[in-house]
């Protein structure tokens, strides 16, 4: 593979790993595209040139895509960014003569707890209780409408819970264990539709190179059927925690808190960003202390520390393993990394990143 692949959102979890694997494997000439110069810091160790472009700036994107045959759209962000970036990216790709656009959507378009039998042909709904799901649904629909002009080939990938080194499902859960806010609804017995990050990138490669993929959508996941407890247990054991101590019950209803409503507003984000860094750090530390207040001396989480979100409750009670048969049959997709190996790599990264992991995984530090 000698064509040039632009990776939009190269500073994010999936985007960054995509650049790493493409570059290290020599599979393609890769061009990371980031919004700010400092976002390129983690990739600056490679001999590659990055381009600066906001995902909503058609002119900047067109310049960044120049000479690229393929674009991987891996931009993360709030719900507004997810929707607003679709048209500028597509228009810029068309203007730059890009052949194919691979869009990283999410299996969440089917909900956190999809119905049995759900697959790529299942109807999507834009009125779900989780706004992230609705944003991805609207983004996919808009991209489908735009691509009817045939200017750029489009492939949509819907990975499940993408985890691995540097992911929020790995480092984020470790942080929650340490600060006392971790929980698993009903012990985490529900199905986790996991997708190890390197397996997702294998699907990205196939979506780029398989001609028949144009205009199609694929669910992507790991081979094994696992539970949420299976995903979280290696992290807990590495840090010396007992998963049975953090089981929680889902509330009967989920009225959005004032904090959730504020977080979803542009005004809240602008306010926080406008504060001096020491003030932002103080707010973060104060919230962490408040969370710790609900943890007793034995490490059992109590009272205000358990803030069960609707999203987590739905995820942890999922009863459906989403299929990736279509990707297997049409792309030749096969998850190359087993779940066991993925967990080993994730825990290894926790140790590398400085988390207080146990030497033998059984509580000895």
From TrEMBL:
<dbReference type="InterPro" id="IPR051783">
    <property type="entry name" value="NAD(P)-dependent_oxidoreduct"/>
</dbReference>
<protein>
    <submittedName>
        <fullName>Nucleoside-diphosphate-sugar epimerase</fullName>
    </submittedName>
</protein>
<feature type="domain" description="NAD-dependent epimerase/dehydratase">
    <location>
        <begin position="5"/>
        <end position="221"/>
    </location>
</feature>
<dbReference type="InterPro" id="IPR001509">
    <property type="entry name" value="Epimerase_deHydtase"/>
</dbReference>
<dbReference type="Pfam" id="PF01370">
    <property type="entry name" value="Epimerase"/>
</dbReference>
<dbReference type="InterPro" id="IPR036291">
    <property type="entry name" value="NAD(P)-bd_dom_sf"/>
</dbReference>
């Amino acid at each position: 593979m000698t064509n040039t692949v632009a990776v939009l959102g190269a500073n994010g979890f999936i985007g960054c790993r995509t650049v790493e694997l493409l570059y290290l494997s020599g599979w393609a000439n890769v061009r990371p595209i980031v919004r700010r110069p400092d976002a390129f810091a983690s990739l600056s160790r490679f001999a590659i040139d990055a381009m600066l472009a906001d995902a909503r700036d058609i002119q900047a994107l067109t310049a960044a895509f120049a000479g690229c045959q393929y674009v991987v759209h891996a931009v993360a962000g709030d719900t507004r960014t997810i929707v607003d970036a679709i048209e500028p990216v597509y228009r810029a790709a068309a203007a730059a003569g890009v052949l194919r656009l691979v869009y990283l959507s999410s299996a969440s378009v089917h909900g956190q707890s999809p119905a049995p039998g759900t697959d790529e042909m299942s109807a999507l709904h834009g009125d779900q209780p989780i706004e992230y799901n609705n944003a991805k649904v609207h983004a996919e629909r808009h991209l489908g409408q735009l691509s009817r002009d045939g200017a750029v080939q489009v492939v949509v990938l819907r990975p499940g819970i993408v985890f691995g080194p540097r992911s929020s499902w790995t480092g984020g859960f470790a942080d929650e264990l340490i600060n006392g806010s971790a929980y698993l609804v009903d012990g985490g017995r529900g199905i986790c539709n996991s997708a190890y990050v390197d397996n997702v990138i294998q699907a990205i490669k196939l979506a780029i190179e398989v001609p028949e993929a144009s205009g199609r959508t694929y669910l992507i996941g790991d081979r094994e059927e696992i539970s949420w407890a299976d995903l979280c247990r290696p992290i807990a054991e590495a840090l010396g925690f007992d998963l049975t101590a953090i089981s929680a019950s889902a509330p009967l209803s989920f009225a959005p808190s004032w904090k959730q409503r504020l977080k979803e507003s542009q005004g809240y984000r602008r306010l926080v960003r406008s504060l001096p860094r020491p003030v932002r750090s103080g707010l973060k530390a104060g919230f962490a202390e408040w969370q710790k207040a609900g943890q007793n001396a034995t490490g059992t989480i109590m009272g205000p520390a358990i803030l069960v979100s609707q999203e987590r409750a739905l995820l942890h009670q999922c009863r459906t393993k989403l299929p990736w048969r279509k990707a297997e049959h049409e792309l030749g997709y096969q998850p190359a990394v087993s779940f066991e190996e993925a967990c080993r790599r994730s825990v290894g990264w926790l140790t590398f990143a400085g988390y207080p992991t146990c030497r033998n995984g059984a509580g000895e530090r």
